[in-house]
Amino acid sequence: MKKRKMPLNLAIVHVDPDAFLANFMGWLEITAFIKAQREGEAEIPADGITPKLSPEKLRTGGVHDVGNDAIFAFCMTAALKADKAAVDKVEAALIESMGKEFPGSFGLWHFRATIDAPVTLEDFVGQAGKKLLAEDLPPPPLRAKENWNTGLRFFEKARKTNFVREVMYPLALWTRARWTETQEKGVAFLQHIEDNLPILREALEDGRNDEPFIANVLLKMAPGVDMELNEEYQGYLRSLARR
From CA 66, how far away is CA 16, in angstroms rounded? Predict the structure, then answer.
């Protein structure tokens, strides 16, 4: 499993559609096989080769869950780089090889559809990602707040995937770039500038691009974009920001 996941990890981190496509089916096969083995429905083949997935098995819920998770992670990192072409290429290739209902198609749908009233975390992430892929930037007065909201949703979703680190690193780079832009060009649109600008500068002084960095920026900059976090959520972010 580790051997098959590693190249997929790298494809997601680097937003490499060719590498993703080359390793996607192998990931579906090994996860489905291990699940079946744990449930007593499969034994290790004599030749040691992981069984291929039949068209029927490709339609099962478990395979689709794994596909949705991988596709969603790839779309997230592609969105953070505004690489719409990469998502287009993956979608076109998977439709050609497996049809429109390919494993992962529902995950991709969140980044394609227009969801007027988002409900789930996936809805919110997909709609934010759709705007990033289209490079649909809000006007400067609203940009910092939208960046904060997008960062929070992506952060929450990244922690729920099988590709946590693979999404967190690009998200940290994006977070640093967006808040550096705010510091240099959009500071006038922060709330209580005299209080929040020093806080932003201090947060950006942390040179590590990881989960604690993102959590700290979200925690410290919430007042700067007029977002009120309850004590429980502040504690949650504070715990994740600790090193």
Answer: 19
114-130 pLDDT, tens digit each: 999 999 999 999 999 99
Euclidean distance between CA atoms 169 and 133, whole angstroms: 18
Q: For residue 102, is it left (φ>0), alpha (ψ between -120 and 50) or beta?
A: beta
Question: Could you give the CA distance from residue 173 to residue 81 in angstroms, rounded to a whole number?
Answer: 10
Residue 223's CB is within 10 A of a number of other CB atoms, namely 16
Mean pLDDT calculated for residue range 34-62:
81
What Å distances lie between residue 159 and 106, 152, 156, 165, 200, CA to CA?
19, 11, 5, 9, 24
DSSP H stretches of helix in 58-208: 61-80, 84-98, 105-112, 121-133, 140-158, 164-185, 193-204
Could you give the CA distance from residue 221 to residue 185 in angstroms, rounded to a whole number? 16
Query: What is residue 46's predicted lDDT score, i.e. its pLDDT?
Result: 63
CB distance 24 to 70 below 8 Å: yes
pLDDT, one tens digit per residue, over 26-41 is: 999 999 988 877 877 7
| Contacts of 43 by beta carbon, 8 Å cutoff, 6+ apart | 37
Mean pLDDT of 146-154: 98
Could you tell me the CA-to-CA distances from 76 to 128, 143, 165, 195 in Å, in that order? Answer: 9, 19, 12, 32
